[in-house]
Design a protein that fits this description.
This is L,D-TPase catalytic domain-containing protein. InterPro entries: LD_TPept_cat_dom. Keywords: Signal. Pfam families: YkuD. This protein is of the alpha/beta class. The chain has one domain: Beta Barrel (L,D-transpeptidase catalytic domain-like), CATH 2.40.440. It is 13% helix and 24% strand. It is built from 4 helices and 14 strands. An 8-stranded mixed beta barrel has the order 3-4-6-13-12-11-9-14. The relative contact order is 0.25.
Length: 258
């Protein structure tokens, strides 16, 4: 298990409960700052959690063709080095319902995986996310760090196995939130890559929100995150490979076609 160090002073159980309540109110990953003690590029491995075999490499001299459903502006934000893209497409600008597809590039081009049902924020999508707007940020973001309340399911990403991912309460439709953060991947929106998803650093300022994750679906809209069913979340964790520079392209269909 990854060990987290806390700031000066011990928080009381009441303060911890308040922090977890704040997580539900202002962002999927809101919470206390943690510094994870780990070697850069390394990750913790749970007992029995076998690492996936290395994925076959492709020549970066092969120009990537534009992904289906992504327009030229969105595609231009994807690095030529990237050969894994999770495309999350919202049903509408103000809808919390979306789908997710993991695309992987080989020498012959992009290949789509299975279409997974997903949720996004309660009020839909925005090009300028701010704290408390209940919208998911449109854009292309790297995926560099993972973690969860449960042990590493076998990912290549650095993984923070921590009790800090505990959550309770209910969602917008009365569904229980417990287990939502059993597995998460941090979306690198307003955060410092290379840190646990629980890290509270906000380069754009606290007002621009943060703690935007891909996490386990609790059966309803999120505060700003993208959520997948548990089996799909575990499959994604096992598939993403930092050597393939994975990113997520997320937004409503019209925004992604720009």
């Amino acid at each position: 298990m990854t060990t987290s160090t806390r700031g000066a002073g011990r928080r009381s159980a009441v303060a911890l409960a308040a922090a977890l309540s704040l997580a539900v109110l202002v962002g999927c990953g809101a919470g206390e700052t943690r510094t994870t003690e780990r070697t850069p590029g390394a990750h913790t491995t749970s007992a029995g959690g076998a690492r996936p075999a290395p994925a076959p490499r492709i020549s970066l001299d092969v120009a990537p063709r534009q992904l289906p459903s992504l327009g030229p502006r969105t595609s231009a934000k994807i690095s030529p080095r990237t050969s894994q893209v999770l495309v999350v497409t919202g049903r509408g600008r103000n809808s919390p319902v979306s789908t997710a597809v993991l695309y992987e590039r080989t020498a012959s081009g992009w290949h789509a995986g299975t279409v997974w049902p997903a949720h996004n924020a309660f009020k839909g999508w925005t090009d300028h996310h701010v704290i408390g707007d209940l919208r998911s940020p449109v854009g292309v973001y790297t995926l560099t760090d993972a973690g969860g309340l449960r042990g590493d399911p076998g990912t290549r990403l650095p993984y923070d196995h921590s009790g800090g991912f505990s959550v309770d309460g209910t969602g917008f439709e009365g569904e229980p939130l417990a287990g939502s953060f059993d597995y998460v991947i941090a979306i690198d929106y307003n955060r410092e890559p290379g840190n646990t998803p629980l890290d509270w650093t906000r380069p754009l300022g606290a007002g621009r929100g943060g703690g935007i994750w891909v996490h386990v679906d609790h059966g309803g809209p999120t505060q700003g995150c993208v959520s997948l069913r548990e089996e799909h979340m575990k499959a994604l964790l096992r598939a993403v490979d930092p050597d393939r520079h994975p990113v997520i392209a997320m937004g409503d269909a019209a925004a992604l076609r720009r």
